[in-house]
Amino acid sequence: MTQTPDESPFVTAEIATQPELWRRIGSSFAQYGDALPKAGQRVAAVGCGTSWFMAMAYAALREDLGQGETDAFAGSEFPKDRGYDAVVVISRSGTTTEVLDLIRSTDVPTVAITATPGSPIVELADHVIMLDFADEQSVVQTRFATTTLALLRASLGQDLEQAAADAVTALSIDVDELAKLEQVTYVGTRWTVGLAHEAALKQREAASAWTEAYPAMDYRHGPIAIAQPGRGVWVFGEPPAGLLDDVAATGATIVHHAELDPMASLVVAQRVAVAKALALGLNPDQPRSLTRSVILS
Fold first, then answer.
1. Is the pTM of this model over 0.90?
2. What DSSP line would sit under the chain, residue for residue?
3. pLDDT in tens, 100-110
């Protein structure tokens, strides 16, 4: 993954493919749908890092849409004695130690969503959904994560066309001023809490930046104390009553793409993370201390 100074990061091109990939999922969902949990089943969704945050979003959305009780866990925190009808495991590399250990240790049917043919998860899981067309060269995940969430949203009966159209708009939004903010706190409600966590992670990974993420209603219970001019509060989804006024009173910049699908607002956040990294002279494709997969001995 070596680049010359004149080349754009791989992640920049990968971010730009997301509208096309979401549309591809929407038009070809039938080939994946049979493997995913059905309405009424009790489901756990698991992953590590970015994949965990996509699991969080899916779990909340599935419950809100009345599809069945759904929990989300980091791979290492899965309660092996709790009863489920299915476990959805998200792993781009298919090699992450925690999720492989989980699959080996559970008797619950597992559905793996991965981007890597021939990886260990392909052999271990009961069902595999291969999204290799959404794989990435960058260590930083962008399109695999959102394409996975698009797939899971489609499994819940959601039409992805507007989200894809909004993602096209997201690619044209100027992010230069947002990248100059000293600090950003991301907030969301229900399924967009997972998006808030993922947006915060992108800046920490790509730009080594100070970011935080919270459920929107919890933001006033302490985190608002760091809000001030030159810092930002990024709101995913519908903000709770009065929150924007409270943030405005601090002088912090409010970022709220009310006109966009929340997943498209995440695309903007991805672009901000890359822009901030480049402004700091960092390579967003190869974050400090990170590799494509965490494999423990």
1. yes
2. ----TTSPPHHHHHHHTHHHHHHHHHHHTHHHHTTSPPTT--EEEEESTHHHHHHHHHHHHHHHTTS--EEEEEGGG--TTS--SEEEEE-SSS--HHHHHHHHH--S-EEEEES-TT-HHHHHSSEEEE-GGG--SSSS-SHHHHHHHHHHHHHTT---HHHHHHHHHHTTS--HHHHT-S-EEEEE-THHHHHHHHHHHHHHHHH---EEEEEGGGTTTTGGGG--TT-EEEE-SSPPTTHHHHHHTTTPEEEE-TTS-HHHHHHHHHHHHHHHHHHTT--TTS-TT--SS----
3. 999 999 999 99
